[in-house]
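In the previous chapter we treated chains in isolation. Here, by contrast, the input contains two separate entities that must be folded as one system, with a combined length of 1011 residues.
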Amino acid sequence: MTSENLSSTKTSRRSSLQIELTRQRLWQLVIIAIIDFVYYVGATYTAIIEYKERIVSSDPLKLSNIIELLAKVYGVNTPMGLIWAGIAVCAAVLGYGWLNNRQQLDFYEALPVKRGVRWRAVFINGILLMFIPQLVFMSFGLLLALSFGCMTQFLLVQAIYGILRVFVMEASVYSVAVFAAMLCGNLVIAFLGSSVLLIVEANLRFVFKAYETFSYKTYYRADSTDDAFYTLSPLVNFMAGIFDKGLNVRRDLINLGVLVVMTAAAYALYKIRKNEMAGTAIVFPAARDIISVVLNVVYTLTFSMFFAGSFAEQRNFGVTVFLIIVTLVSSLIVAVSINMILYMNVRSMFKKPVLMIIGAAVSVIVVLTFRYDLTGYDRYLPNPKSVESCAFFVDNNMNYYTDTGDGGLAYTDSENYAEKYMKLTNIEAVEKIVKIGEKCITSGENASDSYSLKVLFRLKNGRKVYRQLEVPKDVDKETMDAVFGTKEFREGYFPIYHSEAFEKQYPKNPSITYSSYVYDKKIEGESAVDNFKAAYEKDLEKFSYSTVVESNVIGAVTYTRNSVARTSDGDEFEYGQDMTFTIYDSFTNTIDYLKKNSIWIDTEIDASHVKEIIVTNNSEYDDDGEVKTVSYTDKEKIKKILESVHDNNISATWESTDDEESDYLAEVIFNDDAPENAQLESNGTFYTLFNKGALPDFVAKDFD
Amino acid sequence: MIEIRDLRKTFDSGDKNGAVNALNGITLNIAESQVFGLIGTNGAGKSTMMRLIAGIYRPDEGEIIVDGMKIYDNPEAKKNIFFAADDPYFFQNATPNEMARYYSGIYEAFDKVRFNKLLENFNLDGKRKISTFSKGMKKQLSCILGVCSGTKYLFLDETFDGLDPVMRQAVKSLFANDMAERGLTPIIASHNLRELEDICDHVGLLHQGGVLLSEDIEEMKLGIQKVQCVFKNDEDEKKILEGADVMMDERRGKLHTITIRGNREEIEGRFNGYELTFFEVLPLTLEEVFISETEVVGYDIRKLILN
């Protein structure tokens, strides 16, 4: 026989093997075909009929709406992922079902067919069983759309992308299920195993995330530009892809990788699988032990998670003991259930107690590791000698801009700005604050009375370490000043130090607006801006934690600039952007500047304009359990309160809680005819805070 | 020729107590063109051995060589074998004709014409769904498919169990025909010795995973004689049996039934020259040969395979 003849005989034998396999799986093919028909042809027809009927109605559908709808049916974000995955699992597990049946094993394995050839033939047959009906009925659906004039290039491209993504996902899920089928010697267990393999990673990540939330954590990821959720599970990857904007090929590449690895692993398992193990839950006894421990840990943690969540805030020893007991009981229940499934025997529930103990011990260790940071991960501080510089991310109401490097301007936030410009070099001082912050988190105390800060360590090896912490508001001021009173902090915190790109991009109509109380006052011109910047920067030289917490916020300056753009009609229009700067009563240079330029606003409120002041103390509760409030309508008392308050609308960087007045909020309600009402947007109400050390005695007494 | 060398197989359940030694180092040969009977109790390892020889199971140790080729995962070697399991598998909703079509794609020498003829002879409908067949009919079909596949070796696991005597005879004659015409070698496993008595040329007795004995039946029969006699006196009895390899001596009154090792002439020679009240050499059944042979090595075969 020539090599040509031999090759043609081989091809013919393979084809006849495929036909024979398909004949035996005809019922599966029919079910898959029905699902594909209903989805592709049925959905297309329904959408088009709806369109045709409504085209003559009073509320007609546009053709583009229908095409968009069809693009969802055929496109990459098809909602049918779970169904396709289900089909793939069935195709895999049922395709290799003969491996679990002694009668069929005797039949197939005695035949003069190489085991590998049969395995590959079944593998390919399963893939074809999924793909061919899908391709056929998708084509029918598209032809239907074409016949009704709803076919566009956009839809065709979406359909091609969609089917490719579905194929990759289906094939990957199929390979995972084949792996499960090779591992298991029973159909039901193989289905269970496939499901577990497809969700276990996402399950574990969810559980770990939950435990992270329940426990203290200092880990922080600053790079949030790519929040897409990737897993090794093809199904979860595909489902998560529904929320992607546009085509995310990374998911498909991951799924392709899973397909290759799992197919190779499944084939390797098949080669070493012993036929006599057919009928057992797991055909590899050693693997059964590993699976038993892993599943025990995963599902014990899943069950214990609910209890850990309920007691997340309580870190005392008694609660820890209770959680350990809960974990042990959960582990026992899970281990007993797993044993019964893996040995397919109720009497085997206590089999292999050593593995049960290992599973329980690992679960308890994981729970305690999260609860007490046993690995020390969340208490990690880099060696100061290995740190190049640091940056603190402090939230505020200022607007930030950075140049994009190509002449453009990017609107950004305090974190990105600090990451770019803040280079703190007193590492010991930074770490001192971080230690205080971590201690605050680990103790679980003062959590509500603390500053939320994030810190970045730029290591000399180029690595970046981010941590988030809670610094108690009663922190030592000198410790804070050692970092927050430095020029390095100011330059990475106040956008005024790097405003060149903003000014270049918005060259027109610069202005300074001072806002305080309920009024705004504005001055325009470059010189006005330059003078403001000079005065503000001079004040910032004295900026430190201690000066800020001892000062009151009296207003805010908004620095605005405009740029010019054209409409589609060619008309020019101006648009602007701004930066906001908080003004403290200790900023004497800025106050002088505002006064000199006649934009200073006297914050003293005329008591005759005020109808009522309602004072609230957030730490005091009345008999009904509501936050305690006292209303003042007496003119004398109103006048005294007004002399002691400042605008609450502008936030300060730091707010000390040392002072008694920090818990109080004063709501000023003006008379209906008061001029302030014209400035206020809502109900003539203005919220204020009491100045440091200025809480009137009668107010304190009323809340005593 | 099938050569089995030091064949071992253990069924591993994953824990120390659960491991079962199904076969403990079996060594035997199966010659061509003879009927090989594999006898043993339930759990003796017959089916395991059949599956190993058929290449369904992989040996833990030892080797199985079929016509010079290892059998496991070797299609070349498997082309020469057909395995008819004790509970044969047929495709769902398949008919005999469909199964024949499948087998004809697998075994190049499959004889479709003969298949149709045999279906007719055995009164089986080729178009009827196999799922509606009785257990016996399925076994007949399995035998017919096996014979028509044209393989050199035919493995039959408990095939005669469930067949009525007429069909059993018909199947036996089917094998006899193929043995004569094309040198078929049937290997038949059974737990019942009587089932194989009139068909096997060679019998291997399996017990607790080992081969208790493996011999040609004719040789066994020729080497053992059963004599019924009545001695005139005790002195004659003593002299005649002195130095003889007596395997069994049952006495009912004065009538002795003696199973004695040796060929017929030799045994008759021992008794010649003595005056006996009664003397007759009786034919031995396979069962009696087995009882005698295994009792010598300390086993009560009746407890093993006759009950």
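Chain A is about 55% helix and 15% strand. Chain A has five domains: 3-283, 290-377, 381-497, 508-596, 607-702. Compare these points with the single-chain example from earlier in the chapter.
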